[in-house]
């Protein structure tokens, strides 16, 4: 089976996701843990489940989604994998932290860059990488067809969409990404967002005020 564990971390209430299987292989997506308490919560869960953390993936590189990158590297030796178009945010992490007044540890640079359409494997499970620019230029969603779930970052929320007033954001690109990429998925696809509760593609097609 494929299991999904959600943590909500840091002052931005960001959702960090752990995906793992029956072989105890695991992938972490968007580690937002940023202090000793949150680091311990994450580390204890990984230890209790005896998970072998194999990859660190980013839906995008805004500061609230990468605050735990340094901890993951120090503890598990993993470098982030992300879309190259978001490298700007890693390189300017100190400026972002200063702007928001939050403590941070500088994220290491990526191990490799994810491209649109590639497949990442967790054992027999496939994560399809869907490039969805708008909230950031390099936003990526991870779709798992076997379980019909989408790890969507800050592209689509319950009755809302990602903000586009941040540096390099583009509102029309975001709308296009949702309409032409995400809304092509089946209505019962469950969307796990970067903040707040989960939703479904069908629900957002029918009720999202920003898209109707």
CATH topology: Metallo-beta-lactamase, Chain A
Low-confidence stretches: none
Distance from N terminus to C terminus (CA atoms, Å) equals: 36 Å
Number of domains: 1
Question: What percent of residues adopt helix (DSSP H or I)?
Answer: 10-25%
Helix vs. strand class: alpha/beta
The CATH first-level class comes to: Alpha Beta
Oligomer: single chain
Number of separate helices? 6
Number of strands: 14
What does this structure look like?
There is one protein chain. The protein has 212 residues and is of the alpha/beta class. The chain has a single domain, classed as Ribonuclease Z/Hydroxyacylglutathione hydrolase-like (Metallo-beta-lactamase, Chain A), CATH 3.60.15.10. The chain is built from 6 helices and 14 strands. The N and C termini lie far apart (36 Å). The model has no long low-confidence stretch (mean pLDDT 97).
Q: What are the defining features of this structure?
A:
Metallo-beta-lactamase, Chain A, 212 residues, alpha/beta, 6-stranded mixed β-sheet, globular, 14 strands
Strand-helix topology:
Layout: E1 2-9, E2 14-21, E3 25-29, H1 36-48, E4 52-57, H2 69-76, E5 80-82, H3 87-91, H4 93-100, E6 112-113, E7 119-122, E8 125-131, E9 140-144, E10 149-153, E11 156-157, E12 160-161, H5 171-180, E13 190-193, E14 199-200, H6 201-207
Parallel strand pairs: 3-4, 4-5, 5-6, 10-13
Antiparallel strand pairs: 1-2, 2-3, 7-8, 8-9, 9-10, 11-12, 13-14
């Amino acid at each position: 089976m494929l299991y999904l564990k959600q943590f909500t971390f840091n002052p931005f209430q960001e959702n960090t996701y752990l995906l793992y299987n029956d072989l105890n292989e695991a992938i972490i997506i968007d580690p937002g843990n940023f202090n000793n308490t949150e680091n311990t919560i994450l580390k204890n869960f990984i230890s209790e489940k005896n998970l072998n953390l194999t990859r660190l993936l980013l839906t995008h590189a805004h500061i609230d989604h990468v605050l735990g990158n340094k901890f993951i590297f120090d503890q598990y030796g993993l470098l982030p994998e992300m879309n190259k178009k978001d490298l700007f945010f890693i390189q300017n992490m100190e400026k972002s932290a200063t702007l928001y007044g939050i403590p941070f540890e500088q994220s290491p640079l990526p191990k490799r860059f994810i491209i649109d359409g590639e497949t990442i494997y967790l054992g027999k499970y496939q994560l399809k990488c869907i490039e969805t620019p708008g909230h950031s230029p390099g936003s990526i969603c991870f779709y798992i067809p076997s379980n019909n779930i989408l790890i969507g970052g800050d592209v689509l929320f319950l009755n809302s969409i990602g903000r586009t007033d941040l540096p390099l954001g583009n509102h029309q690109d975001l709308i296009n990404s949702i309409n032409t990429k995400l809304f092509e998925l089946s209505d019962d696809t469950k969307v796990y967002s970067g903040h707040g509760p989960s939703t479904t593609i069908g629900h957002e097609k029918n009720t999202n005020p920003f898209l109707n």
